[in-house]
Amino acid sequence: MTAPFGRRPCEVVANKASGGYRIFSLLDREGPPPEPGQFYMLASERSWGEGGGRPFLPRAISVAETAPAKQGVRLDFLVEGVGPGTDRLCELGAGERVWVTGPLGNSFSTPKQVNPEAAGAILVGGGIGIAPMAIWRRHLVERGIPLRVLLGFRNQQHSGGLEELFCAGGTLCPDIRLASEDGHAGHQGYVTDLLVAMLAGDDAATAVVYSCGPPAMLEAVRALCAEHGVACELAMESPMACGFGACFGCAVPKRDGGYMRLCVDGPVLRGDAVAEVAHA
Amino acid sequence: MPDFCGIELAHPVINASGTYDAIAARKVFGDALLEDFPFSAFVSKTITPEPRAGNAPQRIWETPAGMINSIGLPNKGLEGFLAEDLPQLAELPVPLIVSVMATNREEFARLMEAVAARNEVAGIELNVSCPNVHSGLIVGEQPTETEALLEALRPLTAKPLIVKLTPNVADPGAVAVAAEQGGADAVSLINTLKASAIDPVTREPALAAGHGGLSGPAVRPIALQQLRAVTAITEIPAIGMGGISSGADAAEFLAAGATLVAVGTENFRDPRAGSRIANELETGMYETPSRLKTLDLQ
Q1: Is A241 close to B66, i.e. CB distance below 8 A?
Q2: What ipTM is given for this predicted complex?
Q3: Structural domain contains residue A2
Q4: pLDDT at residue A60 above 60?
Q5: Is the pTM of this model over 0.80?
């Protein structure tokens, strides 16, 4: 399914705080439902670049959840204000409009598509990167695929989205384990500590790991999976001006040399296709 | 119906080289791209004789009303372009202009002749913002280098030759005159302005290459001035570009002497910016509201 050609205005139908993050929802009357892992290029219709200044370019935001709506598709995005673009998205008011291009990019493969022997999935999300794990988790649950979800946060201030995206009836879904560096939730330490323990288990070899999060975490996940011979798919991020292959800004080094464009070749990449995930 | 060097175009809005990958866009948006193609002619990314991987990331950086890029001209090289890309670009519903670059005259001639020989190609844009390895000088920064290159290339094709001018010179008019004297059919301007950004966290250059080229509305007044300077002293048509985001902007470039306008950075924000701008031009939607005149300086 291709994206509608061009950008279109979508109405903001909700925007609320969730821990240190915000979750806002758009009503998309034209586009197809997104697949897990896909993203949209977003820019508010007003106060976005006109009259000069920043933000200027649209921002690539992975979709966290979607649901059929009366007149289209509801799109939920999890954001944290970390610069002029995400600050503006955090401020979106109900009724205002956002320019939307997408859904863009590829999506996660099922465990069996990655490895015919695979029996289950391990999802590893860090920080704002828990967003695509939410929509992917729902798809896997609906297909009856066994899974474990590991979610990590730096601290309470830099966390959120759990209640809206990973809870049922007010309690965290039973397949989910948490980690936080400050110990405010779950295991005190990195989410990759939980992954290490899980990969040491007997059934780890028949799992496929899916991950999204900060580059240092993704690199740790990639290296751990390589070490244990477990296949993984990483939903990555890269500076991106356009989202549809035009700007060539989102270059990611390939394992066998050269670069790929994350927007059209990703954002979901096989761990063994990428060179080391660059991180500061 | 603008006539550009004998090529009839549906409207005066084309794309700037390197700002639209029609092959990738068709995969993303499907054939809807062809049904409402945003430009009246399509300019390819720059092709070089050999394949190039492009620069290491970080390649782009957002700036006030613009962006800096140092992409490094990734492309498949002449052979790969002719075999893989040209057949797909030939399916576009508009004339094709191919941008080429090489680092010495012999290679430039070989590349340009091979591209110009193809029926699918309506015109050639010469990217001269590169060094001549023999002299070490950036061709497009030197009137003598530019004229000598044109004199070498002109006899090799009857198709329109467009010289893409760099703004990073004291006198772009002198380079434009040299291009005209060398036999160029048109000039296009401006290319990006040399620019840097510092990462506020690391205090290191934000781009891996250290510097790049600035584009977007931030450069528009500079582009207009250079366009006026060039069209005042040359007879050949000019393609004006530099931060055009609306029909109003395009109208300013046409008023400053451009025959066509090209859209670059705005394509990243709006994949259909070309058609939108052409439509705004045609319908006169660009007319400046009179109240703005009185508020201009406030």
Answers
A1: no
A2: 0.87
A3: no
A4: yes
A5: yes
